[in-house]
What we know:
This protein is an all-alpha fold. It has one domain. Helix content is 81%, strand content 0%. It contains six helices and no strands. It has helices at residues 2-27, 31-43, 49-65, 68-102, 117-135, 137-156. The radius of gyration is 18 Å and the shape is elongated.
Amino acid sequence: MSKALSTFALVAVFTALLMALSLAVARHGYPYGAIGVRRLDGIADAGSFLPLAAVYFFSAMLMMILPIRAAGIVLTHAADALFWAVIALFATIVGCLVARWAFGQSSVLWALVNWRFLFAAAIVGCHFTMNELRRNILLRSLFFVIFAAATLACLFWTFPT
Length: 161
């Protein structure tokens, strides 16, 4: 957990510094600053967590039914990578918003209240409790159904914005 927190903090600081640089360059009238701001804002969207959550929950569903060796392969080659992508994406969003807040856009922090960040929290929570879920056969069966429903909901449900 400490590795996830330190990774989150470092990516957020780097992103905040890059966004601050882009905002400062744009404030001085150079068009390159606006390009940097647009590129960082392009990936800083809470809607990006929906497809990541669908793939993560599908891999978690497979980990519930596969034998331990195959589940380990799914964990190390899919679920772990998706977990770290979610950490990096959320840190990028926070870094962009903090830099904008530092440049005087005080209402921008309200973007963190978006309900779609619950998908990121669900991925992180599932990842940290995956060992406990695999140990108990009842939890494995229950969470197989929950992960299947979550996968289908993330893929096919039209969530309001």
